[in-house]
Amino acid sequence: MNDPTHIPFHRPSIGPEEMQAVQDVLASGWLTTGPVALAFEQEFARYIGCKRAIAVNSATAALQLALDAIGLKAGDEVLLPTYIFTATAEVVTYFGARPVLCDSIAGGFNLDPDDVERRITERTRAIIPVHIAGEPCAMDRLREIASRHRLPVIEDAAHALPASFAGKRIGTISEMTAFSFYATKTITTGEGGMLTTDNDDYAERAKVMRLHGIGGDAWKRYSRAGSWAYEVVDAGYKLNLTDMAAALGRVQLTRCESFWQRRCEISDAYSRRFASVSELELPPMAARGSQHAWHLYILRLRPDALTLDRDQFIQELKNMGIGTSVHFIPLHQHPFYSRTYGYRHGDFPHADDAFSRCISLPIFPDMKDAEVERVVEAVQSLVASNLKTSTIAVR
Predict the structure, then answer these.
(1) Model pTM?
(2) At which of 254, 287, 306 does a domain end?
(3) 3-class SS at 211?
């Protein structure tokens, strides 16, 4: 049973328009990939400003198709951050390639371009930047490195809708970009994703491979315009998005800007109230001329000033009825990546530091002003009641 006094980490913003759109698909009799998914692709491409958009069942699937499109092979290497969710690196292993982890920038979460360049070898095949929390990576520097070494860039924009870098919308900058519509993302289809590109060859390859490697518009086989005859041109995957999910996504896309504006209001409220609390470190802001998506609001504690560590702080907030999360446990700290690739704690000091101090606070469009105020007051009260003696003496 839901506790009305509990503020969850995330609550999806689903209204009657979304419900009606899904009901319309159910009533149509066409439930899987079809005309609604196609319309979603076209609308998403127009919104982003890219040439092609391919709807899939997750951002993981979009990354998988992107790596397939560049011809990733066993023994290749792909550079990506350690401070991410496992999906970004896991897809590299599907091809027998090696995910080469890189550190975060000092004092932040995003990929460090200098560390990327240090780790390039003759086996490096691609770079995958991840826009953590919706803060755009330093795409100018990363693109320059990639261009000099003739490497494609595949952006993981699971957090970055709608974000921009130097006036360019994320999804239009690199060879390919993967978006997520998971339940907690800035728009949702429950589960889902999109791959964007301006390259027709990449787009056509992704369209074929997302549905069993069947050539042509395979989804039309059971439509009036389709044919029972089909041709398998390659060993593909099962990564398509259903019309039911796409119907939800189409409505959500129309609300993307208003969702973003509300998240900006919440992030501004948090930052104004926490700016004077020296025991807290605010999230990095987007670079000048760029736009932060504010998918996450990641606060960092200054442990030398508090008697509580991060884990205890989270538990106390939970006791006060406030849900939080941690983004992310760096990959090199997980058993699989240590066992398989020899990574160890301490290999990536900036990522380790960020992880050890970070807390993601609730920031979702349906969050009420009173809920924002409760979160602020809870964080401030925890800090005030858990100052180290030396800090109190200074004050």
Answers:
(1) 0.96
(2) 254
(3) strand
Query: Could you give the CA distance from residue 186 to residue 257 in angstroms, rounded to a whole number?
Result: 10
Q: Which of 73, 168, 185, 207 is catalytic?
A: 185
Range of the domain at 353: 256-394
Comparing 132-136, 158-162, 326-330, 391-395, the range with the smallest average pLDDT is 391-395
CA distance 213 to 310: 47
- As a whole number, the mean pLDDT across the chain is 95
Eight-class DSSP state of 333: G
Tokens representing residue 2 in the block: 């839901």
Specify if 10 maps to a domain.
no
Same domain, 23 and 111: yes
Residues 57 and 132 both lie in one domain: yes
pLDDT digits (tens, 9 = 90+) for 278-312: 999 999 999 999 999 999 999 999 999 999 999 99
| Residues 250 and 263 occupy one common structural domain | no
**66: pLDDT strictly greater than 70:** yes
Could you write out the DSSP letters of every residue in 46-97?
A: HHHT-SEEEEES-HHHHHHHHHHHTT--TT-EEEEESSS-THHHHHHHTTT-
Same domain? For 230 and 313 the reply is: no
For the stretch 146-182, pLDDT in tens is 999 999 999 999 999 999 999 999 999 999 999 999 9
Domain boundary residue among 219, 237, 254?
254
SS3 at position 225: coil
DSSP for 140-157, written as a single string: HHHHHHHHHTT--BEEE-
Q: Which tokens is 215 given? A: 């050539």
Q: Catalytic annotation on 318?
A: no
Q: Chain-centre distance of CA 341, in angstroms?
A: 24
User: Do 224 and 318 belong together in one domain?
Assistant: no
Are 190 and 303 part of one and the same domain?
no
